[in-house]
Structures are given as C-alpha cells and as structure tokens.
Amino acid sequence: MGRTVVELFYDVISPYSWLAFEALCRYQHIWNIDLRFRPAFLGGIMQQTGSLTAMRFITAIDMTNPQYLEPLSREFWMRFWSQHEDISQPENILVVARQAGLSAELSQKALEMTSSPPVKDRLKDTTTEALKYGAFGMPAVVAHYDGEPHLFFGSDRLELLGSVIGEKWLGPVPSPKL
C-alpha cells in the first residue's frame, strides 16, 4: 500500500497551525504518510468562508439587543464547529438566531442591518481596536488591570490571565460558587 498524502495548510500567524505542524512532523516518521507543507493565508480563508456576514449579524445584535450576545455566539460556534454546518447564508443565520432565542422579527431586522454602514463600521472599529491592543489573531483577550491593558492571545492563556488579575484558575470547567 502506498503512502498517504497529508497536506498541512498553515499560516505562521496561527498557533493552532504550529501545534499541528509539530505533531505531524513527528508522525511523518512513524505513520505511512507523505507530509506536504502548504503555506496559506488565514485571513483569506476566513474571508472566503463567509463568516463576515455572521460577524456582522452578531454586531447588529450587539448594537440593538446585546443581552442575546452570549447565546447567539454560542449557537454560531455550535453550528459551525460541532455540527459542521454553514453559517454564511441568510437562511442559516436565521436558524441560528431562532435557536438562540431571538424572535423572527428581531432576527430579520438584524439580518437586514448586516449590509448597513453603521454595522460595517462598528465591526471595523472593533477590529481596529483589537489591533491597537496588539491582537494578531483570535481569541484576543484584553484585561484592563492596574490602569493598563494586558493582551492575552489564545484560549490556552486563561490561566495566565487569572494570575495577572489575581484570580485562581480552576480549570476549563470550574465548579459554581456555593
């Protein structure tokens, strides 16, 4: 049996790319694979996957009904990452919104707002603000502590965040306070 071709599309700006790179470099001598490195542009991939409309929709909700941000964002992540379903088309965005508890009227209004200059500008401004703090990828967490902004990149930096702000890290699923 021939060697399996494994292509690693990566961008050095992505730490998750690096993790995959290192692991696959180790396994190329263990598994029967032909590892091929394929440098790609993460920003271009994100633009082509249509997630811009989803982020504009979330921004419209932030501007009109921010109390829905947590369940709405969670539903988008669940649909895209857990269910491997599309989040770029209007009909799919409306399904996500319904699952997050938004009314059909509110969802339709927010969907119409996605192409409006105020929503586009708000998303651009928020992105620019993240860049000013030094963000170079997502997630970027900025803690405003002791009068200074502290940037933390990546979900694996939350323990460090807790240390900097004087809080104890209790793992990814902490027990609720009694």
UniProtKB/TrEMBL annotation:
Extract the GO molecular function terms from the UniProt entry. glutathione peroxidase activity; glutathione transferase activity
Which E.C. number(s) belong to this protein? 2.5.1.18
Q: Does the keyword Cell cycle apply?
A: no
Domain (DSBA-like thioredoxin): residue spans on this chain: 5-164
Any one GO BP annotation for this protein: glutathione metabolic process
> Which keywords appear in this protein's UniProt record, sorted alphabetically?
Transferase
Q: Which residues cross the membrane?
A: none
GO cellular component terms, semicolon-separated:
mitochondrion; peroxisome
Pfam families noted in UniProt:
DSBA
The record's listing under InterPro entries reads: DSBA-like_thioredoxin_dom, GST_Kappa/NadH, HCCAis_GSTk, Thioredoxin-like_sf
Give the annotated active site.
S14 (nucleophile)
Reactions catalysed, semicolon-separated, are: RX + glutathione = an S-substituted glutathione + a halide anion + H(+)
Family (UniProt): Belongs to the GST superfamily. Kappa family.
**Know the name of this protein?**
Glutathione S-transferase kappa 1
- Organism of provenance: Serinus canaria (Island canary)
Query: Which lineage ranks, top first, belong to the organism behind this chain?
Result: Eukaryota, Metazoa, Chordata, Craniata, Vertebrata
Q: Which gene encodes it?
A: GSTK1
